[in-house]
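Obj.: predict assembly geometry.
Materials: sequence records (below).
Method: joint structure prediction, all chains together.
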Amino acid sequence: MSEQNVSIKDLLGLSDEEMLKPLPIPTKWSQPFWDAAKEHRLVLKKCSTCGNIDHPPYLYCTACQADEHEWIEASGKGTLYAYAVNHFGVPFPFWDDMPYVLAMVDLPEGPRMISNIVECDIEKLANGMELEVVFDDVSGEITLPKWKPA
Amino acid sequence: MDRGEFAIIGTGEVPCGNYPERSEFETAYTVARAAIRDAGIDKDEIGAVVCAQHIMSNPNNDYNTEMVFGRLPEAIGAKGCRITCMTSSGGASSFSLRKTVEGILHSGETDTVLVVHAQRFSTFTPNEQAKYFSIAGSDVEWEVPYGMTYNALAAMVTQGYMAYTGTTIEQVASVCVACRKWAMLQPNAMFNKKEITVEKVLSSRMVAYPLTAFMCNVLADGGSAFVMTTAEKAKKVCDRPVYILGDASSYSHRTITRSKSRDLAKMGESMAPVAREAYEKAGLGPEDMDIYQVYGSYPALQLIVMDALGICEPGRSGALVESGETSPGGKYPVTTNGEALSFGHTGTGVGIALLVESVRQLQGKAGKAQVEGARFLVENTGGGAFMDCHFTILGNEIPH
Ligand SMILES: [Zn+2]
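Observations (raw structure tokens):
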């Protein structure tokens, strides 16, 4: 556990492979999101026919099934809708991060996202607090958008 | 489906808990025979066998593959079997299995169907279980890379529900206490030895804030089965058939972020029309129910479903549970087997166990947990990341 300052990897003799965090495997229709994230831009898939914004995105618009779409630049602002703090019983690769915060973040553009809240004391978390996006380059290929207090 | 067209006439169950020596096959064969005997029919009357898909299979002797390819009828000697199949919708499997059975019965191909569930989790390591349950409720592309887990999913729903309804953590904990009280009356429950208190629930280890260890269900080995038939046959072969009087369903989402009900305080209210539709189909109302079988799997989810049942103001379910009225002896008996929290979480079997307990109650076979004179009840299930909800009204008579 984190407060013991001993890595779960050393404690249990886990291999590097067992400690690998799962990364998103982009699909044909989500690749532009991850390409933009790598450039530290947050984008959303907007239907050119009906204006619906889908997140997570799918092959075609979930409102009207049209293919035509554009990727719009999100404001990078959000509000904290609800949250949880993982203290125990997570997969090994996340063990040394405990306690860490998972949250539902509402975007002014409409979608809600699951993400981590970072750079914030757990005691200061509050429903409705203003957030702004930050980018965590977790591998050469993948950058995860996360959120911190605005 | 016409009201009371189909009935369940027998059930079987094994103790739920830590049974690493008991394979899924042993469990399946055991509960199958128990259900056939309880139904009082000959095994050769079984015309179809429907198995619940289980999760985290042993790759060397895959239960799902064996059951898909007809192992069960052979092993139990169901010589009159004509149809086998497997189905699943996660936690909602009790409902999708039953609808599959209704389709088979309606087709006229047979008038007697056996449904079986079996699961063994204890032979997997805690990390294998943790890994599986991080992807079971969460999206592998959009959520799992953030360290999302099933407990965290339930925790944020709980946190939001509390924040936006004013429900207290003590009220959430009281759901666990009530479930334990019911489980204490169940010989097959995983946790039926020791009562718990709100203080004990709250002081147990923090797992996913605001959920402590006692608010998170424990994976368990278990299984259950039931025999379903037409009302016509049920009346001939069974003293006390349990009729399916009405049901209704809704689906919302795969990923919680796309829930049709974005307001967690109103999640229960959004299910209320579904519950109402089920009551109406049965020609009954919430006040006619003797028992309310709620599948929450986590305490706040039980409260959310209770908000839909028409027994209290939406958002006030926590106060109702805290008052003790949902516990044994209360006015609104809720979840009489103790559910995932105290009976044990057997994967796709939690809802099936609750359906089996519902039948036992209406047949007067529920032992110490028996709600005296129970005639009608509402049974609920749902699966995934709280993706859907189903309400079924069951009764041991068909109201006119
Ligand atoms: Zn569209």
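Conclusions so far: Chain B has 14 helices and eleven strands.
To do: check interface contacts against the pulldown list.
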